[in-house]
Recover the amino acids of this structure.
């Protein structure tokens, strides 16, 4: 098992933050990530208007956080993708995508869930 260096971890987390801008039109506020050993767990934070009453009284938006994927570090700019299976409540393989860069992995998971 290869471990990402602290610099590689920091780069991965900043990549997630900047990549979320691509999905703003779909209601994504940000992608969050945290490391456990060589795994990066990715969550999506979506914003939605809080309904008619919320808009009338200026209550703003409601945030929802959901699990998206688990990326396993294989090497510099190479990650293995496992998506979160909501029905089984665990991570499993993507139907057509196995590994790639962080942005490619997030895009593959987002195509299914976002």
């Amino acid at each position: 098992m290869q471990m990402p260096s602290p610099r590689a971890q920091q780069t991965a987390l900043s990549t997630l933050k900047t990549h979320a801008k691509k999905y703003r039109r779909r209601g994504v506020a940000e992608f969050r990530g945290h490391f456990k050993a060589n795994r990066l767990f990715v969550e999506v934070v979506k914003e939605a208007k809080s309904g008619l009453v919320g808009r009338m009284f200026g209550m703003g938006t409601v945030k929802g956080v959901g699990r998206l994927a688990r990326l396993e570090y294989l090497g510099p700019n190479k990650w293995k993708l496992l998506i979160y299976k909501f029905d089984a409540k665990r991570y499993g393989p993507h139907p057509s995508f196995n590994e790639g860069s962080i942005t490619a992995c997030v895009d593959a998971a987002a195509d299914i869930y976002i």
User: Anything to note?
Assistant: The two ends are 31 Å apart (CA to CA). Residues 6-19 form the longest helix (14 residues). The first strand starts at residue 28 and ends at 36. Strands lie at 28-36, 39-49, 61-75, 78-85, 90-93, 99-100.
